[in-house]
Fold these 2 entries.
Entry 1:
Amino acid sequence: MELDPLLLSRIQFAFVVSFHAIFPIFTIGLAAYIAVLEGLNFRNPDPVREKLSQFWIKIFALVFGLGVVSGIVMAFQFGTNWSNFSYAASNFLGPMLSYEVMSAFFLEATFLGVLLFGRDKVPRGVHLFAACMVALGTFISSFWILSANSWFHTPAGVELVDGHFQVTSWLQAIFNPSLPYRFSHMALASFITGGFVVAAVSSWYLLRGRNPRSSRMALRMTVIMLAVATPLQLVVGDLHGLNTFEHQPIKVAAMEGHWETQKGAPLVLFGLPDATAEKNHFEIAIPYLGSLILTHSLDGEVHGLKSVAADDRPPVAIVFWSFRIMVAIGVLFIVLSWASLVQMLRGRLFESRRLLTALSWSFPLPFIAVIAGWFVTELGRQPWVVYGMMRVSEALTPSLTGGMALATLIGYVAVYTVVFGAGVYYLRRVILDGLEPIETNEDPDSARPKRPLSALNTAFDGDFLAKGG
Amino acid sequence: MENIDLTLIWVVIIGVAVFMYVLMDGFDLGVGVLFPFAPDDESRDLMMNSVAPVWDGNETWLILGGAGLLAAFPLIYSVFLPALYIGVFLMLAGLIFRGIAFEFRFKSGASKHWWDKSFSIGSTIAAFAQGAVVGAYIQGFDVVDMKYAGGAFDWLTPFTVMTGLGVVTGYALLGATWTVLKTEGATQDWAFKASERLLLGVFGFFIVVSLWTPLAKPFVYDRWVDNAEWLWVFPLLTAVVSVGVWRSIRRRQELMPFVGSMLLFGFFYLGILISMWPYAVPPDYTFWDAASAPGSQLFLLIGVLFLIPVILAYTAFTYWVFRGKVKPGAGYH
């Protein structure tokens, strides 16, 4: 059998980028949370909140480390497997990635050192400043990378000259049409991800009666944030969808499972899209609702997949289903966060065992939703690498053989399995270990620990002691 | 803008960024290379603690090197990476295993020795791969129509194995002299001894590369012979600084061995650039052939002029925060 370097490279890219994406999506939200905790503590020192912050900094350090090492891979992936694309798009992509490194990566990496190891070495204000710089860095980084990513979907400010992209307007290229929507959607996604992870861990502690004061504090903060962020995400997601409908109608057709171009298109709730038969099997649909959502008119025209040649269509079934998974989780999040808010306002949240149990199991869901969302948008872009301008098949490294691509694909899967396995194992240990106990006779000003954070007391195997908080 | 050569400015910027990477990640990779040879576990803890707050920032220079090449010299990016495909993977795998070791090692009990191995083997492979990249650059690439046209293992030759081992030794020297600077007592005694031996090794590799390269590459030979009237300064300076480092180690000075070793790296680096100038992708393409559009170079240059000084300032601040000796037990982790 002939190994196809194109397919193998696509699988490899999807694998390494999905693996990488789950870390920043969490650390962006968590960095902001830590900065808020540190800021509150700076104004009004509170040993409970201080322990809480230290605990989440431990988790942050671990997850950020995984994000850094998997991010280095991304810096080279374009060149190793997609050198034709890198060369063609370098005039735009190169400066974008360089600006990301210079304005964000150095900021995060350098101040993380101070945040992690500098608590007793720098004044409190400087430590808070470091926490803020780490949070700011994660945001700036997501701006640049999402701008570059958005440009793949809605390229602007460039022209193709002899197969080479030349930038004609930096402003148009950077602030390309889908950036505002994609950036808002992802920023909210990272807050929601961070929020549900914090809520899940806090609920888990509360169910077991551990670290009750800090867990209540954390849960109260996150429930309020989530109750605002999750419905807002529905609105932003809808706007993002409308923007996609305007610029990439065929992607939306795949998301909606629309084959025919029609006025008064239905909203397909369920169906099994079949790319060969060019129709959905077992379709359940609500008439006119599709047009109403996408065009805000009952008989608005909606493009179908069959309006373009089969070669120009994305893989329908996976886009269709990933979209439904993402939306379902989003709706579930709204229900869960509002149920929690209502119970909290009634003063019953911390006693509602069923709700706490549901929250404690919610932590994988934001990651699944984010990956599903990325599948929708990136697979929906196929067969283009730069939408309407350059095909994925033109992007591949010419010297790459199937054997080489397979070797590194197996290599990355093996390396990431070990890394991820150890990371998850250790995260579990940190969470089982819990927060450091608070000595009640401590006065708040001397509450700063002699040893700075890092998960110093948690042992990897065997010798760990459960602690209460 | 016509009288300003943006490409030349970018050669300097990328040259400085790569050199920053070599120096900074060089010493922390070197600490990893030396790890198995450290006298005991406590020394290993100290060595790792000495680089833990800064390694992440150091490695960011590598990402800047990658992204900067894509921005300023896309031909280098799109030829080197496909040509060094397998080597790049090995380097990245090495960097991953050493990077996660920082987070996991201190939290592990019985499995600690696995993370020791992860750290040292990962660091050594990454250092070797980087040395092989230097060798492959000197060796040149099979490029047709601006695209790499060679095989997966063209880069792996006796010459690149030698440059790979040379860089492993060189990074180990930086790591050893860094350890001298950051530790005391038994660990420092050991680091002094290691520095002495590694300096000899580095000097050996310097002589081998200096003879092998011109013999294998006629244009490098011509370059040095034709410009012998001023280029003799470089071997002389290298020899003088090597002797200086040797004496400072013997006199148990703490800062000079590290500074001197970095200086040595600077001479090697300049020596390679002088040999290869003006080729970015040897044997055919110069830096001007490899350059991106002037508009892109200019757009990024503006950011570089503002941001790099800021980066250098807060990087210096962190090194200052974590200055002085690493103490056992207390302090870092």
Entry 2:
Amino acid sequence: MSGRAAAREGARAPRPRRSATARRSAAGAPRVDLAVRLGPLALRNPVLTASGTFGYGDEYAHVVDVKRVGAVVTKTVTLAPRAGNPPARIAETAGGMLNSIGLENVGLERFRREKLPRLRALGVTVVASIGGETPRDLERLLGALAAEPAIAAFEINFSCPNVARGGARYWAVAGRLERTLARLRPLTAKALIAKLSPDVTSVGDLARACERGGADAVTAVNTFVGMAVSLDDMRSRLGRATGGLSGPAIKPLALARCHEAASAVRIPVIGSGGIMDARDALEFLAVGASAVQIGTANFLHPDASLRVVDGLRAFLAARGLGSLDEWRGSLRPEALAEAPRQGSR
Amino acid sequence: MSVAAPAWRQTAGRVLAQADAGAGHRWLDLEVDPAFATPRPGQFVQLLLPADASPVLLPRPMSVASVARPRGAQRLGFLYAPVGAGTRALAALEAGAMVEVLGPLGRGFPLETPGTPLLVAGGRGVAPLLFAAQELARGGRAAGGRRPVVLFGARSRALLVGLPDVRRRVAALGAVLHLCTDDGSAGRRGHVVGLLERVAAGLAGPLVVHACGPHAMLAAVARWALAREVPAFMAMEAIMACGTGVCRGCPLPRSAGARAAFDPVRTPALHGNREWAMCCTEGPVFAAGDLDWERIQ
């Protein structure tokens, strides 16, 4: 039984137990197995970079040992290049930042021609993020990229808050997600990950729709739609009225939605939203996430994801835990009775 | 255009000293690792304070105002105005405080461009240009003398940031300093473009302009230079998140000419697309003709 299932069914073991693996190695250097599977995707550790915060994966290679990152999720790629939104695209707010990038990207052809060979040479585990305005767009992207040996898995961006068409609002419909994933599923045996918006009635319902459609995992969550006004000129501080809020400000919100998603599905959930360090990541893993994504933290420290990997290993070793499975879903079930999950009752 | 592996790194920096620079500005001296690639004038760094020393989340882009390399060490100087929460927290740091420095970032002034260098500064924009003046004067001795002419303007005398220091440093380089203020409280009365026109008229031979200051001033200088076909390079500012090109957060609009000439194969993807140039990677210094000054705020 997975830790997540145990938490859902209110089963035994409120605390993770010391493992045989850890006991064996307790005398020497702690050995902690961070490996994780997301459907067909096997990762050396559960720490991914969030799409849009780490370029295409090669830009930081001179300062980050990108092979050590669990996986790099690329900037979202669309069929045609996109120029992106007018400035301002960034506005810092209390404990977070708004962005209105608008899916600026080099487009499918240049991604394939220029980026994939470099990523393959670097040995990066690549999760290609793809975005489209229609299910047909996504079919064409996936069809074009499915056989690329440099790509280990796909994350489908169903949740961009900053585009007029094909953004979070368009995709926040359970039936559309399910039907779209059902059309994409036959196109590849590689993992399909659905990235969800938090600005929905129920992340759990959308996660279930993705599971029914054949997704191997869901990422919960993308940025929250937010806004900031300049009192100097009474305009939005962004070029468009609204943007996507990220950073520490959203962590409690994202954690609740991650917990909701993890409670709703049997496929793995990748937690995302305001994770700045290993302790933040441990919270997401404790509420049922199988892996995590590091986003805004990359803008402070390009090696933020590796700091989280090292921090996870050190934390689990200090607790005498030999693997992530012993931590995942370890939230005490009695705590849930006091804090009913969002959308219930 | 081929892209070499970037030289920037993130390293620790130690505050050596901070001092009042006048007009509400501060001068910061920072010691960084000697292995930190030496910044060029016009380049910038991302300065990140420890989380417990700053209420803001993101690092702050800071133009490098001086570089010194005493006895194998490396010291970087910065001129900044503590006007926001992040820069106020920076101003509160005592000598010995540690920060993180990511850089050097972006492309600096192309000081090798031939011609008599006119360095046009508005307010605190003087800082990278003093650094440029130093580099020009140093290269000048070997290359047969290219002493820059420094033009320094502000709304009033009180806003000519660090004026005594500017006078001293310009004099030490054997360069000429011209001042102007909108209210006439120092130097010539009027806008820096008027001063530029007058100074340029008195110089023989080809000219090259390097400018830094408020965007409205840079737009005026750019129009002046474009109308006279004087090569001109402008150091721009933008709100940034990463500073390294990955977040795509700091676009500046390309001019019609630059859009027409845009070559997606020769332009590194990190720099920008046909519509937008990233301030952090393609800039922060741009040729005047490459930007659409009508659309720059």
